[in-house]
Amino acid sequence: RQHEGPRRVKRAWVIPPISVSENHKRIPHLLVQIKSDKQQPGGVIYSIKGPGVDEEPLGIFSIDKFTGKVFLNAMLDREENDRFRLKAFALDLGGTTLEDPTDLEIIVVDQNDNRPLFRQDVFTGRVVEGAEPGTCVMTVDATDADDPDTDNAALRYSILEQGAASMFSINATTGEICTARPGLDRETVGVYNLTVQAADMSGDGLTTTATAVIYLEDINDNPPEFTKEEFSMEVEEQAAGVDVGKVFVHDKDLAGSPNWLAKFTILEGDPEGAFVIRTDPYTNDGVLSVAKPLDHEVRDRFELTVSVQNEQPLEPGAPASPRALATVRVRVRDVNEAPIFRENPRRISVLEGVPPGTPVTTYTASDPDTRQLQTLTYALLYDPAGWLQLDPHAGTVRTKRELLHPSAFLQGGWYIALVLARDDAEPPLSATGTLSIEILEVNDHAPLLQPLTGVVCGRPGRGGSLLLGATDDDRPPHGAPFHFQLSPQHPQLTRNWSITRFNVTHAVLAVLVELPEGPYSLPLLLRDSGTPPREQQQLLNLSVCHCGRDGTCEDVLAGLGAARVRGRRRALRKGLLQCSRDDMRDNILNYDEQGGGEEDQDAYDINQLRHPEFFPPRAKPPVRRDAPLSSATPLAPRKLPSSPSDIEDFINEGLEAADSDPSVPPYDTALIYDYEGSGSIASPLSSIVSSLTDEDQDYDYLSEWGPRFRRLADLYG
């Protein structure tokens, strides 16, 4: 077989690219004629397919199917489609393909039909004033829709207009705008408006324009200046915190910027710091105000030297200001001023209880208006207790009443009063002074025993003690610590009793030896810690009870009371009250029920028995608290003695009335003898001392009362 070589495409069927200019106006326009080498008896049918034929955009190209001529049917725009790629077909009349499809490429040739376009209408840039030449500010740029590979899109930039100074230049290729010369001054020209142009065809073709706005940024190249060299102002004295006036300045730099904002300083004329000056942020003026109250009498005028400068430092090389200093003259006007208490409050001390009219202090004010003749008068504005009186002209304060503790008007021992001082100007002014008076405590009260009665066991140790206390109306340091002791007038008491300190206000009374049951009256001496100390002798009424095993009292007091009553009755019947060598006088007291202790109540003063005219009549006999409710009551009160000689009969009648009462054990109304007070010549009849001197009493009958009273019989029998 003969070898078959590669298939060769006939040259007539290969179609080279076809170029056609955009915007071609002669329509239809023959582009090319295609032709197949395989001619058939009936002819060849030609067709084309692709964009511009049967694809969008439709109908731009067409072909004569018999002759193979390809036509342009519409104007082309290269900026929309720069080329079309079609397929050409050759068929016989029966529709059989004679040739393989071939490519038909139509190239649209560019024309300079598009102007350059700037990316924005207005370009904005900033540069500081005084910038060096060659300082770049901004770049303007434009685009061209024509073929970038042709001169149709080759752009060139230029500045069409910028003013007479020509301070800026533009790079023709890149569009960068830079400073061209020195001397940019914001205070002269703050904004530059440039008209820039872009042209294609390397500057010879189509053109377009835009605006470039260049703002000069401020620098501090202008110092602030006072508008004049001297300013004058006035202000009233004693006015603090008020504005006196303004000093005016001018600055060429940008208003509101730190380069414009002024700062003021008082250099001379105000060593005391009486004035301050601040900057008004809106006007940039200096506002002078009073920092401390001014006194016309001390200084009536000031001459201040004030400087001004910017908050920001000046740029190097900036000229110095010829008006950086100004003189401010301030005159202080005189006004009426209120009086002044130089010592406020005035603190003084006064002893309590000083008599009315005692001078306390002289509290006066001073008038600052030394250049005006004015008179001050005084009045008490506040004196809640009415303790004081005030001289209206001299200001002397005296006591009006005694100043005593305690008082609701004292606060921690201090009395507060207010004094008003008033001048006679028109209108008058006044001032208030506080007078603080310390009422010094005087030790005028002795401590008082609390309680005055008590019960103790008659055996040392447990139960044989009693806690004593005291109170004092005086305030510290004239009160506690209190000192308790047995009366020094009766040293024999220390044989049976002792007193030891418990704390600053209490002491403990203790039994030293075993004592018989019964009532006791102990004279005690109480002393405070004041200066000088106050002391007072007081009587403590005790009931000594029989001690049980646990140290508590047992009810044996009735037996003791009965024994002592009978012994006293025998002594009275012997006339001891009339014949006593010691002239023993005391009070006759009621005796309470056993177990409850004795109470010093309803006492009868022996002097009233001797002076019956001072003894009040009794409408009915006293109620016996120790008697049951059903007990019989005497039908009538006992008759009072008509003379002191009948005292014995009066006492005997009382004893018989007690003995004849069948409702109670053998009590009597004359048992406990009370202490008459400090300095009494009577001895305590029911103390241990009295038992030592009671030789005329007979207690032998106690042995007949049984074993419970054996101890009493041993002591008294």
From TrEMBL:
Q: Which GO terms describe its biological process?
A: adherens junction organization; calcium-dependent cell-cell adhesion via plasma membrane cell adhesion molecules; cell migration; cell morphogenesis; cell-cell adhesion mediated by cadherin; cell-cell junction assembly; homophilic cell adhesion via plasma membrane adhesion molecules
Q: Which residues form the Cadherin domain?
A: 12-118, 119-226, 236-341, 342-449, 468-557
**Main location class:** membrane
Keywords in alphabetical order: Calcium, Cell adhesion, Cell membrane, Cleavage on pair of basic residues, Glycoprotein, Membrane, Metal-binding, Repeat, Signal, Transmembrane, Transmembrane helix
Membrane topology category: Single-pass type I membrane protein
Matching SMART domains: CA
Q: Can you tell me which residues the record assigns to a coiled coil?
A: none
List the GO terms this entry assigns under cellular component, sorted alphabetically: adherens junction; catenin complex; cell surface
Superkingdom, according to UniProt? Eukaryota
Subcellular location(s) per record: Cell membrane
Task: List the residue ranges of the region (Disordered).
Answer: 613-648
Molecular function as annotated in GO? beta-catenin binding; cadherin binding; calcium ion binding
Q: Which CDD domains match?
A: Cadherin_repeat
Q: Does the keyword Transcription regulation apply?
A: no
* Annotated Pfam families: CADH_Y-type_LIR, Cadherin
Record's function text: Cadherins are calcium-dependent cell adhesion proteins. They preferentially interact with themselves in a homophilic manner in connecting cells; cadherins may thus contribute to the sorting of heterogeneous cell types. M-cadherin is part of the myogenic program and may provide a trigger for terminal muscle differentiation.
Q: What's the protein here called? A: Cadherin-15
Where does this protein come from, organism-wise?
Fregetta grallaria
Q: Lineage of this protein's species?
A: Eukaryota, Metazoa, Chordata, Craniata, Vertebrata
> What gene, per UniProt, encodes this protein?
Cdh15
